[in-house]
Amino acid sequence: MTIQEIEKTHQLASQCIDDAMVNEAFEHIDQLVSQLGNANMSDEMVRLRMSYELMLKYLTQGVMDPQRDNILNGILQSLYTLNDQCYIGLMEPISPEVIYARRRELGRDSIVGTVDEYREALKELSLAQSAPHEQGDNHAILSRLQHAEALETKLFNRVWSSFPMTTDDAESIKLCITGDILPVHTRCLLVAALMLGLMKFYDENKLLILLEAYSLSDEAQVQLRALTCAMLAMLAHRKRTSGSQAIQDRLAAMLETPDFNHDVWSIQAQLARSRNTENIKQRVRNDLIPNIMKMRPDIIDKLKDKDSQVIDLSDIEANPDWQYWLDQSGITRKIEEFNAMQLEGSDVFIATFAHLKTFPFFKTLSNWFLPFYPAHSTVLENLGAGKLALAEVVQHAPYLCNSDKYSFCLSLGALPESQRSMMSAQLEEQNAALNEAQQGELPDERKSRISIINAFVQDLYRFFKLFSRRREFIAVMDNPGLDMTDCLPLAQITRDSHVLELLGALYFKNAFYDDAIKCYTRLEGMEQVNDDHIYQKIGFAYQNAGKPEQALTYYSRYELLHENDAWNLRHIAACYRAIGKAELALDYYRRAEALCPDNISLVLTIGHVLLEQNRTREALQQYFKADLMDNAKHRAWRPIAWCSFLLSDYDRAIDYYDRIALDDKPSPQDLLNRGHVLLCQGKTQEAIETYRESLKGMNGDTSKFRAAFKDDGMELRLHGISAVDQALIPDAVCSTKHDN
Questions:
Q1: Cα 552 to Cα 560: distance, rounded to the nearest angstrom
Q2: SS3 of residue 311 by DSSP
Q3: Maximal CA-CA distance, the chain
Q4: How many other C-beta atoms can be found within 10 angstroms of the C-beta atom of residue 695?
Q5: Cα separation, 150 vs 431, whole angstroms
Q6: What pTM was estimated for this model as a whole?
Q7: What is the distance of C-alpha 140 from the center of its chain?
Q8: Percent share of the chain, pLDDT over 70
Q9: Does residue 247 have a pLDDT over 70?
Q10: Residue 262 predicted with pLDDT over 80
Q11: d(CA 660, CA 637)
């Protein structure tokens, strides 16, 4: 069989098992077993067929068997595993994927043997580090350190590529993770190895180890990484975990763990935030950084010493013009937004560090999940053995995930000493400022746990989005939901009213409206939720999702309870307007206006609705009313000018377009409209010049200008401009031959 044939047969078998089409699943798996020629697997197939046929026989004979569901589930689970084993056996000799490369490389090395080898290397390293040594011995110690790290990587590869994990191996790994025989960073790596294996093939033993690691470990890093990995595995294999009694029992026991509910909620919230990472990345890359770089030359010029032309960066904060420049450029507001996103746990640094994942360090799979610690050989080599203080500064940088801390050290290693010192000084200053701000606060274990979760989810996001061979794994971070409320094993915890409210707000803020609707509609049915505003939230989510009819249903429910809520009335009106029921929209807008008579936006909106109904004179009166209320903002001038044009009051239209030009820079649309008025007045030459100004404002895009001119063709015909003239004028405007 070719790789494509093996993959297709494996997928068909998996689908049949998913759908409980057992006989068809047997047929597909038989093909794989026959191709593999493994006697043990052939025997397992015979055993499973006999069990299934016996169960069918009892069923047809009408025998009542209370264990039938459990027996069928056991057969299905065994078929899943056998299907995966056959697939791995056939792919291992021929596939270039990294899992099979690792299996070929490691051969039959046992996990227990690799653990013993690694522990021995750690012991030798510890003895070498504690013994008195000369400066020349540093190289030997570094060599021992790198040997231990190589064995650490070997153990990681052995664990994640094993399938299925034997009971003995599972017990050994569980002891390694939950005990203290290995360093904390290695235990964290083993947790990630289990998760990575689950992102290839479902293995219940691996998932149970992760769940038990959360309950049994006394290290927060290990606990929270294990729970995060377990939740992602359950999301990736929701169908198989939903039917597992062992998983259900383990989770039921974990409910007694004090922090469990809060930890699940925190992980779910951070996974939900991670869905917005690409948007944040674009905002930082395309908005914040370009604006800072755009203003930089001006700032640099102002900060230069007139005599020496040297910039003293320590004087920047003391310069009274610094904040003014930032405020005027809008950078202050953008930085405040950046800081707010950072504080709430958003991944604001991915745009900065994404391009730093090309270092050779990140070609090693395990390094994507490695907790940052100063004694790692990569840190020592890049910062120097005598720079542990600097490494500790990096370690305590609060908003950098572990992966980015390694990237930071690797990039520092490539810099001249002067720049390295400056960057490390800035980072140390930031850490010191944060520590000073936190000194007045009591220690908060909850915040500490959330911080660990946030950093680890960011590490995972980088792996699943940036690792060169990421497509060989289940793309769990691409899951459009990343939503544990739909993951049945966790539904009891994740469908809590607190977490649904939190997620609904988070989804809504980031424009994931369908997910917000799902959370809020679940909240709606909960007895403990008595807030009528839930109807408004659901309505608002539907409205923003482009579903005004559904939005009206919920706004109307709220109206039954609160008939004089102006906000609600305005949104009902907007929904009626969106579905073309202008009279109903006007009725609700006027009711809202009666409650808020000073709201200029409402007055303008009523004018817009009237204009859409071709009630131009009534609309004009609304706009005049708005203009009187507007306190020199002149928001009504443009609609007044347009209405005046529609009513053939050309002098007033020109007057208002001239006012707009004096008060503000006229837009290309303003100039286009002014050209229409001049054209209808018979001032063709002036009209063409004004149209050319409009074209210039469109950056000379003649197609855009022609389309805009054509859109107003009906109005121009009603005002006496012939079809011939309408065809010729754009050519006259866009042609350069007749320019003076």
A1: 12
A2: strand
A3: 103
A4: 24
A5: 32
A6: 0.82
A7: 44
A8: 85
A9: yes
A10: yes
A11: 7
